[in-house]
Amino acid sequence: MKITAIYPGTFDPITHGHVDIISRASRLFDKVFLAIADSTSKQTLFSIEERIDLAKTALSSLPNIEVCHFDKLVTDVARDLDAKVIVRGIRAAADFDYEFQMAGMNRSLFKEAETIFLRPAEHLSFISSSRSEERRVGKECRSRWSPYHQKKNPHPPPPPHPRPIPLLHIP
User: Fold this and answer.
1) pLDDT digit string (tens) for 85-127?
2) How many CB atoms neighbour CB 123 within 10 A?
């Protein structure tokens, strides 16, 4: 039985923590859609087109990942894509309460789907798209936490962890 999953979010921008989560999900499921929210209550730094481009670039080495965007309920997108799993990243206990409530709501709207929580690698668990060092300066995002920075700067500053996992290496 082939299992399809969806990993929804704003990904503004996609971070190494997001890449870590999607890499793990790609090993667990046959197909994973990274679904980028188009209409959101958040004020985004990057347009939907920019976020899609950044995600496609960061995930290009993962053959079973497809990047898409959505502007409706996650459960409707999951149903449309025949995804039976909704992947969510949990960095800390503070994330869990919110995500647990969302999982319950998603279950009530789409009973056939299960939500799973994945935790990023230790050295990436403090990275948040909305709270990280990302700041738009023209069209440049200056952050060592985002693959976007590496796309613009081929020699980024070293990561904070002494033995970082390679960005897109899947064992």
Assistant:
1) 999 999 887 788 899 999 999 999 999 999 999 998 877 765 5
2) 17
DSSP codes joined into one string, the chain: ---EEEEEE--TT--HHHHHHHHHHHHHSSEEEEEEESS-SS--SS-HHHHHHHHHHHTTT-TTEEEEEESS-HHHHHHHTT--EEEEE--SHHHHHHHHHHHHHHHHH-TT-EEEEE---GGGTT--TTTSS--EETTEE--TTSHHHHHH-SSPPPPSSSSPPPTT---
Annotated catalytic residue 18: yes
**Catalytic one of 56, 91, 107, 119:** 91
**91 tagged catalytic:** yes
Q: Which of 16, 18, 51, 84 is catalytic?
A: 18
49-91 pLDDT tens trace:
999 999 999 999 999 999 999 999 999 999 999 999 999 999 8
Q: Residue 148's CB: how many other CB atoms inside 10 A?
A: 25
Give the pTM: 0.74
